[in-house]
């Protein structure tokens, strides 16, 4: 459970940093960095959704 909480915090930080990076890349019109931050943001969102699904499944298995 501690590992999942740590991963959750890490994914939130990744998403927040990607959003900050997106704003910076849009302001400076750096298209390569913009694409990189979009890709990393999508990756962190994907991992977060996967973590939530696994967590729900493990909680459901423990209660039954």
Characteristics:
mainly alpha, 94% helix, 64 residues, single chain, 2 helices
Terminal Cα separation, in Å? Answer: 18 Å
Number of domains: 1
Largest sheet: none
Based on CA inertia axes, which overall geometry fits?
elongated
* Order of secondary-structure elements: HH
Instruction: Let me know the number of strands.
Output: 0
Radius of gyration: 15 Å
User: What is the overall pLDDT average?
Assistant: 94
Approximate helicity band: over 70%
Put simply, the count of helices is: 2
The unreliable regions are none
**Residues in β-strands, percent:** under 5%
Structural class: mainly alpha
Describe the protein's architecture and organization.
With 64 residues, this protein is mainly alpha-helical. The chain has one domain. 94% of the residues lie in helices and 0% in strands. It has 2 helices and no strands. The protein has helices at residues 2-28, 31-63. Helix 1 (2-28) runs antiparallel to helix 2 (31-63). The longest helix has 33 residues, at 31-63. It is elongated. The protein starts with a helix and ends with a helix.
Topology (SSEs and partners):
Elements: H1 2-28, H2 31-63
